[in-house]
Amino acid sequence: MTIMGGFLTQNKGEHKPRPGVISVAAGSKNKERSIPLISSAIRPGVLAVVAKRKFILILLLAGMFGAASVISTTIPTAHTAEVHTSAFPTPAFFPVTATLPTSAVFPASGTAAATYAATGTVTPAANVPPTEYRYRVVRAYPHDPGAFTQGLAWVDGRLYEGTGREGESSLRRVDLTTGRVLQERRLDRHHFGEGITVWKDRIIQLTWRSRQGFIYDRDSFRPRGVFHYDHEGWGITHDGRRLIVSDGSPVLRFYDPETFRETGRLPVRDEYSGAVGGLNELEYVRGMIYANLWPTDIIAIIDPRTGRLRGRIDLSGLPAAATPASRSRTDVLNGIAYDPAGDRLFVTGKYWPLLFEIRIVKK
User: Domain spanning 131-362 has what CATH number?
Assistant: First the structure.
C-alpha cells in the first residue's frame, strides 16, 4: 500500500496475506510480518491490538496529508479469521471530496480562493494538449524576394505588408496575384520596421528597438501620429477592441487603440504550463491569436482568454518550397494574414519569393 500524489492506493500486484496470517506493513518495501494462528481464547485481543495499531497509523497519515475527516472503521469481531488491508477502504479516511488530482491548481487569492475556502473544491488545470496541425498549400503567389517581411494584414480585399531592417524598412500595399508593390512608404533609416495591423481607417506599425510606433492613414499612407512603448516591438494585431502586441517574450500585451495605453498582459503557456517564448508576428483568426514562433516553422494558436496554447501549426517544408535551388537568401517564416470573408489564411517569410495560401489540417 503506497501514498502517491495525495492518494492512498494499493499497488497493482501487491502481496496479499496468506490465510491464517495477519499481514502488517514492515518498512518501505512492504515486507510481510507473520503472526501464526493462535488460540480462539486470545485471538480477539490480538486482533484488536493490530486493528488499533492500524487505526493509529491511519490517523497519522490523514494528518500528514491534510485530509482530516471523521474516521469510521469496523473493528473485526472475535470470529474474524484474518485482517486484510481491504478492511480499511481508502474512502473511509480519504473522502472523495478531499481527493484532488495532482494537476489541481490551488488559488492563492481572489474569487477562486474564496470558492475553494467555502466549498473545498478546486478547478483542475487545463492540461488539454494543443491540437497538432499540418498544412495543405492551396495556392502560391509571387512575393518580393527583397522584402524582409515583419508584418502582414488583409483588409477589404487589400494586402498590406510591413518590412524590416535599418535602411530597408517600409509599409506597403501589395497586389496579391502578382506580388507587385502598389504603394509604399519608407521609414527613416535608423528605424527597424516590425509588425503592422489595420485599425479602422488607420495602419499601425511597430519598430523593433526604437520603442515607438507609427500611425498612418490607411488610404494615403500619410503619417497621422506617433506613440511610444517601453519594450521591444515585434508583432501586432487586434481583436476588434484591443491592440495585441508581442515583444518576443512569453507575454502578450493589450493596448487601447485610441490612447495607446497598456491595459493588460497575457502570459502564454503550453499544456505543461511552460512559458511559450519567441512570440513574433501576430494575427487574429476566428477568435484565436495566431503567432509565429521565432525562429521556428511553427505557428502557435493561443486562446486570448486564458493564454493557453490551443494548437500548433507545423509549417516545416514550406520554407524549402518557397526557395528555388538558385536562391540562398531566405530567412525564417514570418507573416500571417487572414481574409475573414473568404476564410483564407496567408503566410510568407523574410526574403521569401513566394507567399502561400494554406489550409490547416489535423495531423
Answer: 2.120.10.30
